[in-house]
């Protein structure tokens, strides 16, 4: 993270560590994620233990990459092989990280704004940054770094040039906020709202509100919405020492009284009264959440004279800044680009902190592929640091993250071009860059596109993005990670996981999925055919790949790309043995499938003796695993049959393993099996549909991975008794507004959803499909909405789930996902 000047001995004292220190180096960066390492020499790695992972297992690898400073809570024998490492042994590495963050925070006396609540924390933080960065050099939480880990990493960025800190704090269970309060120590507090998020861990909303108020026990000022009776009553009952600054739309006596809110097509005008003076601000948004978030920001700005008595503030100037508030980019989007490029779109979020995180994301994705890391960057709007010094820091950051080329756009970047020691091009404006024609020469690159809103980088993204029609499948990589961790939490620490990414990753796209899983420490990937595995290899995936349905003609592909085949009968085994012997192959890994009752593919149990005899006579292949498929693990009525299969498999696998001079992995459980029969998990499990958010037990525990959406092309006003679509099946029973959407059965929208059998979500309302679904289009009734042309329409996602559609069509979620056509654009994002 940001520069600081603590020696490793100082840090050992701060966290009360039992230290073995070989060299007293200076620490500049704190690391908790081994995948984002960029400056080994001055990095301190905290080996955190969570319910899903253990950082201690990455220490040797980090040591090999040059890291020499580690905070640990267990000492393993393998650490004796790294005698020149500095090891700080503590009781709990997370608490040590928090203690270091708290110590660092206490070195600064300027105002710190702490923000918490159920929703709006990040928006309020980012808008305050936009409003105040013209007057202050601000250090703030990157993106939504508001957790027990994220908060100390955020506070670590405070430095001698900072004049104001803005940090958000999020909790999911009782007793967490006290630890975050000790790290942030805010002097000003903003409580946004209290909702149902994480409510399962609290007995009531009031209990959660009281817990969140613990962030503000020592603040001098607390801002909140007094129209929320829960918040107002809880604030009054909380034993804090703060001055309250409630705002209200109802109470004219409130310190900030919102007199009127007027919405129009271009935004919202908020008229208010403060200290008997009336004024107004305008924001370029109309939704209720944005109105509430902007009022929180207004309340803070009105208190600036008390917070900074030595400064003079021009309120009219601040009011004007509200009209230019920018939407906050809450996610990084990954899209397929032209000329074999991958685009990471992070526009409208341009500052050095978010640049750091976005570069980490690009760095992780560029490690294993052959694409060139390229940064397209605009001037970064900031203040408080001399511009020359600031861009020197930017250049150092970009170099450290191993960016090979920068395309800089803006007068400041052009002025300080000499500071960037890499392949570089600089342009004064976006238009100059686009008109130069250089954009057409960008090939075989992974591009991070990051710019301030005024530079209109969407024009660059539009030119570089692969042209596909307006229907898209959005894939939430954070949801993939969440679901992976959920299933891993069901397993013993040593149980390995095979993730199924066959059939183009169940339709969501195999490469981005595979890359994400590889970064999460998945042990194996599984594909259906060899060509799928070869494509992943070409994209830079290095982890073991199991091919579930290898075909005879694919043997060369298997060997060339180091893919591990499933072997299910003697004919295939003898054929692949013959091919391998031609190549002089030895000890090549294969996987043996046994049929215990699925009656699809696999050796029969009575063939195991013959199989062991064959393997005792050859050294070409080595069995990596033996496995079986369960026929009904997701249905309780088949539990006796499932247990019969599992017990038979244990017997068969033991027979095979006893005949071999080496151990083999054993796996039988699929997603449903992991949830319903964890006692049979053995050495490894296969995670399939559960990874994509489908559970047979706890649907609330998983997150939907994919959202299929499109846009309204046209809206027509039609009369009662008019017909819509082919065969005139869509007969209207009232005067209606009919919207045409660019999605049809060629995109994967099942034609059985025609004629009001299916619906899409527009303007938050379900709109029935009218008439027959066409090959490329469908029509929906938007009469009861405020929909307009260009608006978004969701086919499935959070509100209309894949399971719901599958049930409606009397099929399974697999079919819904895998039916999405390749012509539908896939967009990947990470919050």
Defining key terms:
27 helices; 9-stranded mixed beta sheet; 10-stranded mixed beta sheet; alpha/beta
Description:
The chain is α/β, with parallel strands linked by helices. The chain is 30% helix and 23% strand. Strands 21-20-19-22-18-17-41-23-32-40 form a ten-stranded mixed sheet, with helices on both faces. Strands 9-10-8-11-12-13-14-15-16 form a nine-stranded mixed sheet. It has an eight-stranded parallel sheet with strand order 30-29-28-27-26-25-24-31. Helix 4 (121-132) packs across helix 9. The chain is globular, with a radius of gyration of 29 Å. The model has no long low-confidence stretch (mean pLDDT 90).
Outline the secondary-structure elements.
Blueprint: E1 6-7, H1 8-14, E2 18-20, E3 26-27, E4 29-31, E5 43-46, H2 59-64, E6 69-72, E7 86-89, H3 93-105, E8 112-116, H4 121-132, E9 138-140, H5 150-155, E10 164-168, H6 177-184, E11 188-191, H7 205-213, E12 221-225, H8 229-237, E13 243-248, E14 256-264, E15 267-274, E16 277-283, H9 288-302, H10 304-307, H11 315-322, E17 332-336, E18 342-345, H12 352-366, E19 372-378, H13 387-400, E20 405-409, H14 411-415, E21 423-427, H15 430-435, E22 445-450, H16 458-464, E23 472-476, H17 477-488, E24 496-500, H18 502-506, H19 510-519, E25 524-527, H20 530-538, E26 545-547, H21 555-560, E27 564-567, H22 570-582, E28 588-593, H23 608-616, E29 621-627, H24 639-658, E30 665-667, H25 671-676, E31 684-687, E32 706-711, E33 714-718, E34 723-724, E35 730-731, E36 736-741, E37 759-762, E38 765-770, E39 778-781, E40 792-796, H26 802-808, H27 813-818, E41 825-830
Parallel strand pairs: 4-5, 5-6, 6-7, 8-10, 8-11, 9-10, 11-12, 12-13, 13-14, 18-22, 19-20, 19-22, 20-21, 23-41, 24-25, 24-31, 25-26, 26-27, 27-28, 28-29, 29-30
Antiparallel strand pairs: 1-3, 2-7, 14-15, 15-16, 17-18, 17-41, 23-32, 32-40, 33-36, 34-35, 36-39, 37-38, 38-39
Helix pairs in contact: 3-6, 4-9, 7-8, 17-19
């Amino acid at each position: 993270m940001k520069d600081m000047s603590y020696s490793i001995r100082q840090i050992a004292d701060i966290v009360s560590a039992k230290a073995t220190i070989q060299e007293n180096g200076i620490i500049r960066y704190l690391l908790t994620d081994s995948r984002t390492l960029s400056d080994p020499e001055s990095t301190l790695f905290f080996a955190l233990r969570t319910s899903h992972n253990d950082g201690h297992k990455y220490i040797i690898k980090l040591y090999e990459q040059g890291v020499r400073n580690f905070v640990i809570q267990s000492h393993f024998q393998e650490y004796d092989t790294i005698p020149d490492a500095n090891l700080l042994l503590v009781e709990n590495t997370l608490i040590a990280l928090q203690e270091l963050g708290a110590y660092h925070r206490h070195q600064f006396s300027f105002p710190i704004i702490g923000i918490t609540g159920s929703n709006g924390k990040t928006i309020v933080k980012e808008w305050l940054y936009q409003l105040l960065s013209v007057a202050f050099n601000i250090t703030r939480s990157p993106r939504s770094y508001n957790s027990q880990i994220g908060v100390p990493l955020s506070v670590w960025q405070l430095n001698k040039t900072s004049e104001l800190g803005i940090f958000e704090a999020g909790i999911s269970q009782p007793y967490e906020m006290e630890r975050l309060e000790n790290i942030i120590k805010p002097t000003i507090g903003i409580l946004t709202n209290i909702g149902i998020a994480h409510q399962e861990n609290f007995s009531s909303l009031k209990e959660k509100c009281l817990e969140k108020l613990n962030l503000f026990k020592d603040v001098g000022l607390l801002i909140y919405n007094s129209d929320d009776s829960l918040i107002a009553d809880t604030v009054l009952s909380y034993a804090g020492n703060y001055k309250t600054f409630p705002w209200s739309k109802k109470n004219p006596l409130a310190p900030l009284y919102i007199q009127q809110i007027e919405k129009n097509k271009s935004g919202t005008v908020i008229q208010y009264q403060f200290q008997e003076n009336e004024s107004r601000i305008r924001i370029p948004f109309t939704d209720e959440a944005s109105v509430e978030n902007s009022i929180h920001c207004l309340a803070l700005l009105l208190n600036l004279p008390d917070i900074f008595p030595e400064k003079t503030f021009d309120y009219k100037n601040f009011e004007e800044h509200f009209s230019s508030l920018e939407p906050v980019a809450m996610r990084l989007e990954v899209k397929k680009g032209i000329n074999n490029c991958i685009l990471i779109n992070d526009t409208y979020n341009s500052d050095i902190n978010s640049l750091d995180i976005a570069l980490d994301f690009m760095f992780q994705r560029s490690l294993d592929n052959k694409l060139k890391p390229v940064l397209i960057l605009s001037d970064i709007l900031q203040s408080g640091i001399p511009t020359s010094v600031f861009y020197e820091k930017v250049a150092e950051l970009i170099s450290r993250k191993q960016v090979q080329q920068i395309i800089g756009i803006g007068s400041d970047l052009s002025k300080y071009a000499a500071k960037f020691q890499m392949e570089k091009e600089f342009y004064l404006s976006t238009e100059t860059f686009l008109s130069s024609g250089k954009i057409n020469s960008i090939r075989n690159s992974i591009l991070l596109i990051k710019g301030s809103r005024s530079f209109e980088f969407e024009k660059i993204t539009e030119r570089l993005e692969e042209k596909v029609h307006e229907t898209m499948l959005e894939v939430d990589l954070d949801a993939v990670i969440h679901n992976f961790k959920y299933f891993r939490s069901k397993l013993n620490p040593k149980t390995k996981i095979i993730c199924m990414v066959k059939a183009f990753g169940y339709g969501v796209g195999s490469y981005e999925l595979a890359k994400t899983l590889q970064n999460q420490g998945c042990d194996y990937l599984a594909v259906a055919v060899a060509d799928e595995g070869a494509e992943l290899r070409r994209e830079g995936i290095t982890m073991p790949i199991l091919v579930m349905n290898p075909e005879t003609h694919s043997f060369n592909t298997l060997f060339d790309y180091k893919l591990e085949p499933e072997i299910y009968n003697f004919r295939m085994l003898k054929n692949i043995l013959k091919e391998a012997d031609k190549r002089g192959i030895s000890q090549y890994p294969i996987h043996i499938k046994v049929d215990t009752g699925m009656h699809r593919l696999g050796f029969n149990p009575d063939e195991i003796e013959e199989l062991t005899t064959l393997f005792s006579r050859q050294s070409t292949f080595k069995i990596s695993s033996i496995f079986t498929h369960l026929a009904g693990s997701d249905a309780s009525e088949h539990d006796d049959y499932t247990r019969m299969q599992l017990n038979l498999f244990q017997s068969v696998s033991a027979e095979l393993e006893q005949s071999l001079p080496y151990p083999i992995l054993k796996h039988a459980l699929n997603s449903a099996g992991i949830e319903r029969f964890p006692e049979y998990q053995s050495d490894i499990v296969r995670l399939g549909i559960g990874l994509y958010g489908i559970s047979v037990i706890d649907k609330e525990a998983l997150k939907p991975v994919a959202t299929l959406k499109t846009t309204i092309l046209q809206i027509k006003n039609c009369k009662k008794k008019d017909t819509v679509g082919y065969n005139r099946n869509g007969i209207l029973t009232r005067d209606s507004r009919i919207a045409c959407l660019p999605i049809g059965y060629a995109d994967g929208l099942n034609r059985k959803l025609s004629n009001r059998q299916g619906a899409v979500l527009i303007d938050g309302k379900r709109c029935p499909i009218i008439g027959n679904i066409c090959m490329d289009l469908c029509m929906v009734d938007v009469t009861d909405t405020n929909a307009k042309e260009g608006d978004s329409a969701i086919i499935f996602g959070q509100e209309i789930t894949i399971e719901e559609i599958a049930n409606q069509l009397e099929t399974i979620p697999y079919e819904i996902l895998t039916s999405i056509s390749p012509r539908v654009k896939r967009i990947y994002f990470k919050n």
